[in-house]
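Course assignment 3, question 2. Fill in each field.
Student: A.L.
Task: Predict the tertiary structure for the chain below.
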Amino acid sequence: MRISLLLSLLVVFSCSTKKGISEKNDNDTCRTHGTVKDFTGLDGCKFLILLDDSTRLLPAKMPAGKFQFRDGQEIWFDYQELKDYGMTICMAEDLIIEVTCIREEGVDPADKTACSDLIMDPNQIAWMRILMQSYRPMKVTVYPFQDQYLYYFETPRVSYLHDCNGQLVCEVPGKIMNDCLMQIQALGAGRTIFLQQ
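Answer field:
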């Protein structure tokens, strides 16, 4: 009797499903902390992710979406090592990986306030507070776009357009006319929510 009970429990627990790393799990995704480092100019490298233990990861595959790396960016992510990927021209990495989940530090996927409400104070939203400290913008402008808002952080060197979840949409180097700046101009006048004094 005890043996059959033990076998039954073993079967039940061995058949229980666990969510894979790439599946959506609101409580347990993007668990690894890293810092993005720009290695441009080093053996054909671009962006590598540095783990807290200094391991260097080369992201060869990314999840669908428009996530853009920038030097010094703090991120939370999940990954799988690509053991059969082969060699790369970078050769500065410790591992070649597929990123299965990624978000910028301070960007709470559950925080949709900046999408549904017009935010007039960047300090109201966690991801905006972090970007204000990181970018130190001269000006922040909000633009209505479809049924949400876009936020443009202007700095002397590079300006950044973020969606309402804090994800980088595009950037404008200086005052150079590029696709990003043309998209911003097409949005109209916008509304200033921060102006450096």
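Instructor remarks: The chain has two domains: 23-104, 113-195. Helices lie at 2-15, 113-116, 126-135, 179-186.
Grade: pending
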